[in-house]
């Protein structure tokens, strides 16, 4: 898996999303031939009121029922099922051509049965025009792009990889008393937990060495 995709997958995982990485979309060609039209870097699904891997402290105002709050930058729907169709770029945060192709987007939504197929064309057009759409079931579908450079002002959600990395680092630091007891299998998040463990051990070792009495100080 691409490193940038793996980083964003860890971020969405921490924020309560189930993810599918690098999902291929196959297109039919003449003479019974097929080709991969594109792949969607990440499909992410979040259930209403989904919590995180650690119980977060409840804020004094507007507490979440489960005691967990997603990253505000995600602007996640807390009341309804939500799906993200996400692209991940190491450079500028822009959509692939395939992600703006109505046939590709409709094929993805058909695959996951988000609503009756007859209703899809209208919702696909709204998604491509506004960056999000609301299905009759209440499901909100959004397009999102993660990249090193975010220009802003687009119709779809844009989040920088720098923000993703800093959010994960801060999440590990704030919840270290819990996470240090957890066996983390996600490779990216696990690496960040390991890095924090190593950093704290090194700092503790230096602190002990600094305060250890020298041989002359220890002599009565």
What's the pLDDT, averaged over the residues?
Answer: 83
The percent range for strand residues is 15-25%
In this structure, how is the largest beta sheet organized? 6 strands, mixed
Q: With helices defined by DSSP (H or I, 4 residues minimum), what is the helix count? A: 7
Share of helix, binned? 25-40%
Which regions are unreliable across 5 or more consecutive residues at pLDDT < 50? 58-66
Oligomer: single chain
What integer value in Å does the Rg equal? 22 Å
Provide the domain count: 1
Q: How far is the N terminus from the C terminus?
A: 62 Å
Shape category: elongated
Task: List the defining traits of the structure above.
single chain; 220 residues; alpha/beta; 6-stranded mixed β-sheet
What does this protein structure show overall?
With 220 residues, the protein is of the alpha/beta class. It has one domain. It has seven helices and six strands. Strands 1, 2, 3, 4, 5 and 6 form a six-stranded mixed sheet that branches. Residues 58-66 have low confidence and may be disordered.
Quick take:
The chain is an alpha/beta fold and 220 residues long.
SSE arrangement:
Blueprint: H1 3-14, E1 18-29, E2 33-46, E3 82-92, H2 102-111, H3 120-130, E4 132-134, E5 140-149, E6 157-160, H4 161-174, H5 176-179, H6 187-211, H7 215-218
Parallel strand pairs: 3-5, 5-6
Antiparallel strand pairs: 1-2, 2-3, 4-5
Helix pairs in contact: 1-4, 2-3, 4-6
């Amino acid at each position: 898996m691409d490193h940038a995709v793996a980083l964003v997958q860890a971020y969405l995982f921490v924020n309560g999303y189930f993810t599918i990485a690098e999902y291929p979309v196959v297109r039919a060609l003449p003479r019974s031939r097929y080709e991969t039209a594109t792949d969607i870097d990440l499909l992410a699904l979040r259930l209403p009121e989904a919590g995180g891997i650690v119980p977060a402290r409840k804020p004094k105002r507007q507490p979440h029922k489960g005691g967990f709050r997603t990253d505000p930058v995600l602007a996640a729907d807390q009341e309804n099922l939500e799906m993200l169709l996400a692209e991940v770029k190491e450079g500028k945060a822009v959509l692939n051509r395939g992600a703006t192709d109505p046939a590709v987007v409709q094929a993805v939504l058909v695959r996951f049965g988000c609503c009756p197929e007859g209703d899809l064309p209208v919702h696909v057009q709204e998604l491509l025009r506004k960056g999000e759409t609301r299905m009759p079931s209440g499901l909100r579908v959004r397009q999102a792009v993660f990249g090193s450079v975010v220009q802003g002002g687009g119709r779809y959600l844009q989040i920088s990889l720098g923000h993703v990395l800093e959010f994960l680092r801060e999440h590990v630091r704030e919840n270290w008393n819990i996470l240090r007891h957890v066996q983390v299998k996600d490779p990216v998040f696990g690496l960040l937990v390991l890095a924090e463990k190593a950093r704290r051990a090194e700092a503790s070792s230096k602190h002990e060495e600094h305060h250890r009495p020298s041989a002359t100080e220890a002599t009565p």
